[in-house]
Amino acid sequence: MKSNIATFLTALFTGLYCTASATGAPAGTAAGGFSWDTIPATGQLQYHECYGSFQCSRLEVPLDWSNQSNPNNVTLAIVKLPAVVDVTDESFGGTIVINPGGPSGSGVGIVLQSGRGVQRIVDSDKHFEILSFDPRGVAFSTPSLACFQDNAARNLLAVLGVGAGSLENSHYAMDVKWGIDQGLGRLCDSASNGIYPDGSDIRQYVSTALVARDMVEIVDQVDAHLRKEVHSRRQSLRSHQAIMAPVSDPPALLNYWGLSYGSYLGNTFASMFPERVGRMVLDGVVDADDYTATGWTTNLQDNNKTWAKFFEFCFEAGPKCALFDPSATGPQDIRDQVDSFLAELKDNPLPLVYNGNAVLLTYFEMKANIHLCLYLPNQLWPLLAVSLKSLMDGNLLSLVSLQETAEQWRKATSNRFSPALPFQLSQYQPQSTYGETGDDLPAGYPWQLEAGVSILCGDGDDITSTTKAEYEEYLSLLQSQSPLVGSIWAEIILHCIHWPAAVRPAPENRFTGPFQSNLSDYDPRGSPLLFIGNTADPVTPLRNALKMSERHEGSVVVTQDVPGHCAGDVNPSVCTFEILKTFFRDGILPKPGLVCAGSRRPWDD
Ligand SMILES: *[C@@H]1O[C@H](CO)[C@@H](O)[C@H](O)[C@H]1NC(C)=O
Ligand SMILES: *[C@@H]1O[C@H](CO)[C@@H](O)[C@H](O)[C@H]1NC(C)=O
Ligand SMILES: *[C@@H]1O[C@H](CO)[C@@H](O)[C@H](O)[C@H]1NC(C)=O
Ligand SMILES: *[C@@H]1O[C@H](CO)[C@@H](O)[C@H](O)[C@H]1NC(C)=O
């Protein structure tokens, strides 16, 4: 356990690649004796015990839902945490599908990490099973979206990008990153991995529209499986009740809670298959129009505000915050010190001797670390303050307390439903302890960047005609939205500027809107959507939730007055949790305009 923390700290400080996650390919054997390879891929759900008390299944679905004559399949890795009651129990409430976002976040990983935590939130006198899946090409689903042949080459190129520094700082950084993404595009275009015998390429078939269609299949399969299970249970109880529902039963509906990009997946599902919407929560909301346009211009509107909250809460916490200074008269005094440290770092990277090694902290890496920390105030802000303080003091002895803080953070996030970290920073992810078996599994997987890029560039409009000059203007726009994170965020579309047409999805496999629903004509068991937005979310500002909600008839936005990305189980609010319980139990939405307070602040005990 200790070595993992040390590795993570090294990564946090230096952006060096976390070797544990870089080599820990999820394909093949996982810890705890379970390996996905050992269970067969089938056209019906067949569960196998895995990771302690979880159940795993590999489901075969068509590669191309819009072409019946394409014989190829993809295999989805599916995991379920059973409900705390038997499926025949009257209080069994059904299935809730969760998604941590990304795109490219592992659904399997998030259920193993947070299934119990989600259950704790949504269960009331109804008890739910929690299910997720690795979307096509992601993590344990096959074939994979990996483009590189080996990790060493992948990491070398990534390190080159990190070393080139922050985009706004030099033309050199821009030129290097432009070139790296040209290379990535060419590689993914020519990669043999994921090519079927007939030449079909997995990369053309990982659009969100196809994943939404996969969810229809999953819902049908889960329904069929539950019916069989109830049937056999009742038979073994020798019940004489009607056991199989009549064939004329309406189709099963999707209950869903998606974070971040998971809100785009849910939004797509609701817009394509409104007749299949059960209870859907979209949390940390993406502006679907902007995402579909490969814009990424409506994410950072509240990023400044989130960073300001860091100093506000730190000042308010007093001596509990490592950056607190008794002579500070307000948050701005603390901020001034951090700002001058960052400005100094721009020209003077900080050499550190740590654990018997020399490491170098650059401005770009420090900003990337702060970007990452802004997602999870409750779990990461005290740690960020300690880390900044020790770097500003050059006092490496405080690494000891950092280690303790990291340990606390690990404890605080295990069992919590948290958004996937940005795939560009996937190498920073620490290992997580999953399930009851205490298995250590990689939270990230080596080809997460390739997977994320394949999905989001194909989902978005083709922007390959963008010139360097136009891209520089784009960079300025994002920098004006957030001086701290703008240039990091701008790297997302750089991948798409170089994304080859040959691996884009066909038009019939893209859904480009309109993103909307009116469920009043459909199944009365379905409910309008529930949106959740935070007042200071670093990458999905509240205004996106309000905008998207307007398109979904009868939907309601709950505002959480907290900083951080998504509600999930990382930004606890008793008020929001009550709303979620009621919504999943009865399909009842709260009154519009409700603002929920957070139940804790980062420096609270
Ligand atoms: C695709 O999956 C279906 C359902 O499991 C199966 O019947 C079919 O043989 C598979 N096709 C291929 C080419 O593997
Ligand atoms: C459908 O799939 C078949 C078999 O792979 C292929 O020959 C055909 O071109 C595809 N049709 C379209 C419209 O892509
Ligand atoms: C963020 O702050 C910078 C100055 O630090 C300012 O120029 C910019 O307008 C702010 N952006 C937003 C969206 O408030
Ligand atoms: C939603 O559908 C219902 C029933 O068809 C209709 O009466 C209502 O006007 C629709 N709402 C909107 C905003 O179109």
UniProtKB/TrEMBL annotation:
Provide any one GO MF term from the record. hydrolase activity
Pinpoint the AB hydrolase-1 domain residues.
95-312
Q: Which InterPro entries match?
A: AB_hydrolase_1 (IPR000073), AB_hydrolase_fold (IPR029058), Pept_S33_TAP-like_C (IPR013595), Serine_prot/Carboxylest_S33 (IPR051601)
Signal sequence span per UniProt?
A: 1-24
Q: Which domain of life is it from?
A: Eukaryota
Keywords on this record? Hydrolase, Signal
Q: Where is the Peptidase S33 tripeptidyl aminopeptidase-like C-terminal domain?
A: 483-596
Similarity field: Belongs to the peptidase S33 family.
Protein name, as recorded: Peptidase S33 tripeptidyl aminopeptidase-like C-terminal domain-containing protein
Species for this entry: Capronia coronata CBS 617.96
